[in-house]
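Protein modeling request. Please complete all fields; requests missing the sequence field cannot be processed.
Requester role: graduate student
Desired output: 3D structure, token encoding
Chains: 1
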Amino acid sequence: MASNVAISKEVFEFLTALKNNNNKEWFEENKATFKKHQGEIKNFLEAAKDHLNHHDDIEKMKLFRIYRDVRFSKDKTPYKAHFAGFFSRLGAHLRGGYYIHIKPGESFLGAGFWAPNKEDLFRIRKELEMDAEEFREVINQKSLKTIWGELQGDEVKTAPKGFDKEHPDIDLIRKKQFVFMRPLTDAEVLSPTFLEEVDNSYRAIRPYFDLMSEILTTNLNGESILE
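Delivered output (227 residues):
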């Protein structure tokens, strides 16, 4: 595995300059520099994917485009002042994914389920309605919580349709997303050991993914729904 891949401070310098000059003219003038740093980030993501594949099964890696979709946004700045990548776990068998966001002063890692489809969301909620004890045990494991903190995600205000708002586990049932976020300092991102730190963080979230994979590939009787 490549372990000497790092992110240079020049990446941060470019993103800071882009934030302060977020217009097409400046970007076109500095496109060669952008391409260089984009390649650097892509190399880092490829190395992270290689690490992940030693302890998980990654179906694909995506480096997000720098161009913003401004059609429905009040903010018309054309470019994102960050780099970001996503690693999708193997299809129907595993589910979920890992995220990395590189931005001066606002970098973070993410893991979990950002936008579960309605069938998956309903299945997760029914599992929690029936018995949330194992779920709570997993998300409160010290090795996971020390790195990732609390479960996060958007949620409905009271209770999803068909669920009791007085249920003892309604705090989990009302979630629409099931994600963990780990903030990163600039020093951590620019450290020569950042790749190992990313991989260690992703390893720590594995018990959560294992449980969610089990939930999403079985029915409420624990029987596989995979063909």
